Amino acid sequence: MILPVVADRPAAVYFTFTNASDEPVALAAIHIAGANSAEMHKTEGGQMRAVERVAVDAGKSVAFAPGGLHVMAFDLDDSLKSGGTTEMTITFEGGDKLSMPLVIEKMGAGMHADATMDHGAMDHDAMGGMEH
């Protein structure tokens, strides 16, 4: 998670999601602990727009990175500080969820808030593993 330079602006979240299952999945919502709301966005042709879902075929990865897909986190709690961590939860179509920690950095710190999520075989009771 990259905190904004200017207070009261949204933060950006970047990560790579890997669907290691044998079935396609779709990311339907993102929750960031300490943010009032979070939205998946996509930048294309210099324009940013909200994205309702992100489909990921079996065995494929999708990168949430600057200049493309990314997550915007709005109305940040004062407890979110550079050098700390928070939690991101992805909700999939169908209601399954996967959570992981996020490192919090200040914009321009020269580092990337990067995590790799490995979505293993899906079933309705358990999600697959995560890898960093």
Automatic annotation (TrEMBL):
<dbReference type="InterPro" id="IPR036182">
    <property type="entry name" value="PCuAC_sf"/>
</dbReference>
<dbReference type="Pfam" id="PF04314">
    <property type="entry name" value="PCuAC"/>
</dbReference>
<dbReference type="InterPro" id="IPR058248">
    <property type="entry name" value="Lxx211020-like"/>
</dbReference>
<dbReference type="InterPro" id="IPR007410">
    <property type="entry name" value="LpqE-like"/>
</dbReference>
<protein>
    <submittedName>
        <fullName>Copper chaperone PCu(A)C</fullName>
    </submittedName>
</protein>
